[in-house]
Prior knowledge:
Strand content: 15-25%
Structural class: alpha+beta
CATH topology of the domain at 35-153: Alpha-Beta Plaits
CATH class of the domain at 35-153: Alpha Beta
Low-confidence stretches: 1-6
Number of helices: 5
Mean pLDDT: 91
Distance between the termini: 36 Å
Bound molecules: adenosine-5'-triphosphate, 2-amino-6-hydroxymethyl-7,8-dihydro-3H-pteridin-4-one
Shape: elongated
Largest sheet: 6 strands, antiparallel
CATH superfamily of the domain at 35-153: 7,8-Dihydro-6-hydroxymethylpterin-pyrophosphokinase HPPK
Amino acid sequence: MTAFSTEGQSDPTVQPVPAAVVEQVDAADTTLSNPKRAVLSLGSNLGNRLETLQGAIDALEDTPGLRVKAVSPVYETEPWGVAPGSQPSYFNAVIVVKTTLPPSSLLERGQAIEEAFDRVREERWGPRTIDVDIVAYADVVSDDPQLTLPHPRARERAFVLAPWHDVDPDAQLPGAGAVADLLTGIGDAGVLPRADLELRLPE
Ligand SMILES: Nc1ncnc2c1ncn2[C@@H]1O[C@H](COP(=O)(O)OP(=O)(O)OP(=O)(O)O)[C@@H](O)[C@H]1O
Ligand SMILES: Nc1nc2c(c(=O)[nH]1)N=C(CO)CN2
């Protein structure tokens, strides 16, 4: 923490920096020198699903202050939360990133990527070219509806838990327990590994 001090201050025209500002700057510095680990879920069920998932991964890697550290296998999954047969199947994957962006900026970046891939928002859980959800950000827990952490429905979604477990078998969902146990609890029906397909970890 930077010390706030007026001691030895000889120039009376120099205003002391308010303690609140010092605190904010220190917090930003800490974030910059201390990247956080975040887990993102990617899903696509419109257009060229594999190409779009790869495009989103590459766009995330191109983000200043963000590096993609792991990319899961691809799963073909039944649309969750909607009537069976009412939508095309999804391709889903999970990536692990390290980032100096705070959670709100990471959300903004994900939403900008959704827009760049022409995502249309018409109905809840409607079909989409790309969905970027923040599953977890370090061990942050928040019930802010703009950004709920961990993602409130992640624990119910095998299309999130299965690929997450692949890239991190020891993963914990903050506040909910081991991903392995959550996955055993809900099962992996409707979530099929597509070993014939691959997403690249950007270089
Ligand atoms: N962890 C989170 N990740 C992404 N968006 C979130 C999160 N928590 C809250 N939101 C908010 O949810 C809003 C709706 O997001 P979106 O349209 O992607 O939902 P969805 O993907 O259709 O459904 P679901 O939230 O069940 O995955 C966003 O505008 C965002 O502010
Ligand atoms: N299989 C599958 N179903 C979904 C998905 C998804 O990514 N995959 N995303 C949703 C909203 O985030 C709603 N339903």
